[in-house]
Design brief:
Protein name: Phage-like baseplate assembly protein
Pfam family, one: Phage_base_V
Distance between the termini: 158 Å
Shape: elongated
Radius of gyration: 45 Å
Helix content: under 10%
Length: 594
């Protein structure tokens, strides 16, 4: 039955200890869930005389504890019964570390002004997963988005984008670099049955860039030429790789960087993660104290000549992957891969970045605190309280010029409540921008029959309308002032109160009461044929002045010509006649007639 006599390794499911099992396999890598497979006989699973999984199926979803020197906590996700030929068969129980509780459905969620530690702690707390969170990147992230990812997929992406440590230590999810544990001593030739030592060329030069829109600044930084977190062999592998690959790759920063200090940290940690396995060891041992994240101190010893043993320290290493195999009769062996303990950053998880699709959103705020015309939007999947950071709005033309420092071009910022289309730079869900606005069934009116009308209407109702059927242009405001050009050569300006034209010190004003005011230093009125000025009603002038090239006529029921200093009435070449049907009176202090 394979009972473990020495009790060094035991297994409990849902708090109940199994008194025996046939075999156990446990695989523990960094950046991933740990997986186990437990093979037990039918009697341990309930009853050897069974035809189905009625009893052992109760283990599904239950916690499992594997007791070694370093404990492991997991959750059962699969139970199967295997039979072959005429034997009773056995039960295979498999599952993952408790981090599997973070494998929610693919979800969309967003945060504003939260740190990496805040987000990881929140997700782990919601899932009931114990966590040890201590990231190097402690600043607020601004806007960060989980997009079509399970909670664990999202945490892995954060670890990749910010090059933070991520592994399960058997009982807790570790996010961020922990304190280095005391090493376990292993010696090849005694406690190590096999040992492989390798170096590889992983380093590549790169120039990483990003764009800061608030400053209109492109920043770029080269990955360092000198490695950090490498021992001597790792340093040699780094240098050899850099000699092989001299041309730098140009790449955009996968995480959003907001200033140069963040860029310098990003390229440093990026290179550390990519080159962490430049020097590695692979070993096989029977020490049950080893687990992922564990430090080991390796020594190589062998018989150099008779009665002479030579030893050499190989250094300290951090285990990044280990597989445990337990069999009957207390058989145990593990195989591990480790990298130098001086490493600053673990190898990054190999993940596919989410690709954000163009999608609809609504404007929730357009009062940019910096006055740059940015908006905040809420996409359809964002629930109450969720929204983007301040994001830019695409326009057909926008920029500056020598004469116009800002707002040159087409400036139309969407209104709160407007439906807009959102795109994403690099298809990154953390980098949205507004592509344009969308009408819907309640806001759209179309362009009329034959799509003849084009218009611009602002929030207050000011409108510019162009009618392609008539060729006309209509401009109006909420106060009922209008400018109409009918497309046939006629233009009309209409206002409910006043129309005023001003140029320097000259002005023309038309008032709704019929008053017309003309003001200027010098007013000239000219005509090629005639000028008529009249006063009257219904188009019939009772008083007026008419002028042609040869004649000026003034007519009125009563006419007064008065000069305060002098009055001259005469003709330079012809005659002057004063006539009336009644009396003609000429008077003055002195009257001279010649």
């Amino acid at each position: 039955m394979g009972e473990l006599v020495d009790k060094k390794i035991s297994v409990s499911i849902d708090g109940q200890r199994l008194f025996s099992f046939k075999s156990l396999k446990l695989h523990q890598p960094i950046n991933e869930h740990h997986r186990f497979e437990l093979l037990i006989d039918l009697e341990t699973g309930g009853n050897r005389y069974v035809h189905n999984l009625k009893d052992s199926a109760e283990w599904l979803g239950k916690k499992i504890s594997i007791h070694m020197k370093k404990p492991f906590l997991g959750v059962v996700t699969n139970v199967s019964l295997h039979r072959k030929n005429s034997d009773y068969g056995y039960i295979l129980v498999s599952g993952y570390s408790t981090t599997y509780l973070l494998e929610t459905g693919r979800n969309c969620h967003s945060w504003n002004d939260r740190s990496l530690g805040d987000i990881v702690n929140e997700l782990c707390s919601n899932a009931g997963v114990r966590a040890q969170v201590n990231p190097e990147h402690t600043a607020s992230l601004g806007y960060i988005c989980q997009y079509n990812e399970s909670d664990f997929m999202f945490i892995r992406r954060l670890a990749c984008q910010y090059n933070e440590w991520l592994y399960y230590n058997g009982t807790e999810l570790v996010f961020g670099r922990p304190k280095r544990p005391a090493p376990v001593s292993l010696e090849f030739g005694t406690s190590l049955s096999s040992l492989d030592i390798g170096v590889q060329t992983l380093a590549r030069p790169a120039k990483v860039f990003s764009y800061l829109s608030m400053n209109d600044q492109r920043i770029a930084e080269d990955t360092p030429n000198k490695p950090a977190g490498q021992d001597m062999l790792g340093y040699k592998a780094f240098q050899a790789s850099m000699e092989m690959f001299k041309k730098p790759a140009y790449q955009y920063a996968q995480s959003r960087v907001r200033y140069m200090q963040e860029m310098e940290m990003y390229v440093r940690k990026k290179q550390e993660a990519e080159t962490a396995e430049s020097h590695y060891v692979i070993g096989t041992s029977e020490n049950t104290e080893l687990t992922v994240g564990c430090a080991v101190k390796l020594t190589s010893s062998f018989l150099e000549r008779r009665r002479s043993i030579t030893s050499e320290s190989l250094g300290e290493f951090i285990i990044i992957e280990i597989s445990h195999t337990v069999g009957e009769a207390s058989y145990y062996v593990n195989k591990f891969k480790a990298i130098p303990a001086v490493t600053h950053t673990l190898p990054a998880p190999d993940i596919a970045m989410p690709m954000a699709e163009t999608q609809m959103a609504r404007i929730v705020n357009n009062t940019d605190p910096r006055g740059k015309g940015r908006v905040q939007v809420q996409m359809n999947w964002q629930t109450e309280g969720m929204h983007t950071d301040w994001i830019r709005v695409m326009t057909p033309d926008g920029g500056s010029s020598d004469d116009v420092k800002s707002n040159r071009g087409f400036v139309f910022i969407p209104e709160v409540g407007d439906q807009v289309l959102v795109g994403f730079r690099y298809n990154d869900p953390n980098r949205p921008y507004v592509m344009g606005s969308l009408f819907n069934g309640t806001t759209g009116g179309g362009g009329g029959q034959g799509n003849k009308c084009k218009s611009i209407t602002t929030r207050s109702g000011s409108t510019l309308m162009l009618d392609d059927a008539l060729g006309s242009v209509h401009l109006s405001d909420p106060g009922n002032s209008k400018l109409d050009m009918d497309g046939s050569g006629n233009a009309t300006i209409d206002s409910a109160e006043t129309i005023k034209l001003v140029c320097g010190e000259a002005s023309l004003e038309l008032r709704k009461d019929g008053t017309i005011l003309i003001n200027g230093k010098q007013i000239e009125v000219g005509a090629t044929d005639s000028v008529d000025i009249g006063v009257g009603s219904d188009g019939d002038a009772s008083s007026g002045i008419g002028m042609t090239k040869e004649e000026l006529q003034a007519t009125s029921q009563k006419m007064v010509i008065n000069g305060s200093s002098s009055l001259n009435v005469g003709s330079s070449d012809g005659t002057t006649t004063l006539a009336a049907k009644g009396d003609v009176t000429v008077g003055g202090s002195k009257v001279s007639l010649n």
